[in-house]
Write a structure and sequence with these properties.
This protein is α/β, with parallel strands linked by helices. The protein has helices at about 20-30, 40-55, 75-80, 110-140, 160-175, 200-210, 215-225, 235-245; strands spanning about 10-15, 35-40, 65, 90-95, 140-145, 185-190, 255. The protein is globular.
Length: about 270
């Protein structure tokens, strides 16, 4: 299927690895020009080279990388000032920040909460604010926020993530249903379940330490609880993201899409 987004410009955050990279790969494959951002320059530069090398050069989009902390005003300014990039005139924005650390809520002070809210709620809002009106003026825009399945099914050791991401979800529910929807701009959230990324490795280690079980035992137990019988892959996640950015997805907005292998037990 031609997703109809060849030649568009996309910003993909946290794109040096994991789910962010999966999204960038899928968009580049569709001929989208992508600006990828992450804090680690070496990994990001390697990813940029691989994104181009792994795709058909007759259809692939261009890739620009910016090593910056997107959660800071300086980092966002660097992205918008990237040489060869579109400035603030992105057609697609994929927001993504590393999840806050797991732990016991009794141990989190105000600084820990502010850091979590800043990265996982306020930063996506700032990126939306900087780009959405220009999308509306052009009659096309796609914003996809990578959040977490914990928004629907909170995880006890991920209280910082539960709170901050739920705040973003509430914000998006309102703004996605504003006049932007009639101006060709969609805003949706992707709520990943358990995908085989560095993030899952962190939470598995935390669960292992808490339970006294081995990491491998925790991994096996978790995958046994997923109806699909396995963790998801970044490539699968990226394909869903690319579809939400497509012209075919123009009638989908304000939604929370839950790719989790069937793990969530609810009807709604």
């Amino acid at each position: 299927m031609d997703l109809g987004i060849k030649g568009k410009w996309a910003l993909v955050c946290g794109a040096s690895k994991g789910l962010g990279r999966g999204c960038a790969e899928a968009l580049v494959r569709e001929g989208v020009n992508v600006v990828i951002v992450a804090r680690g320059r070496e990994a990001l530069e390697k990813t940029a080279a691989e994104l181009v090398a792994n795709n058909d050069h007759s259809t692939t989009g261009s890739v620009i990388f910016v090593a910056a902390d997107i959660t800071t005003a300086e980092g966002r300014a660097a992205v918008f000032a990237a040489p060869g990039g579109p400035g603030v005139n992105f057609d697609i924005v994929v927001t993504n920040a590393g999840g806050p650390p797991p732990g016991d809520f009794r141990d989190w002070d105000r600084e820990a909460w502010i850091k979590a809210v800043d990265a996982n709620m306020l930063t996506p809002i700032e990126l939306i604010k900087a780009t959405v009106d220009r999308m509306a003026a052009r009659g096309f825009g796609r914003i996809v926020n990578i959040t977490s399945s914990a928004v629907k099914a909170p995880i006890d050791i991920l209280g910082l993530s539960n709170g901050a991401r739920s705040g973003l979800t509430g914000f998006v529910a309102g703004v996605a249903r504003s006049k932007l929807a009639a101006q060709g701009v969609t805003i949706n959230n992707l709520l990943p379940g358990k995908f085989d990324t560095d993030r899952i490795a962190v939470t598995v280690r935390a669960a292992a330490e808490k339970s006294g079980k081995s990491v491998e035992d925790i991994r096996r137990a978790q995958q046994a609880q997923i109806p699909a019988g396995r963790y998801g892959t970044p490539a699968e996640f990226g394909a869903i993201c690319a579809f939400l950015c497509s012209v075919q997805a123009a009638y989908i907005t304000g939604q929370n899409i839950l790719p989790d292998g069937g793990a969530y037990p609810g009807t709604y």
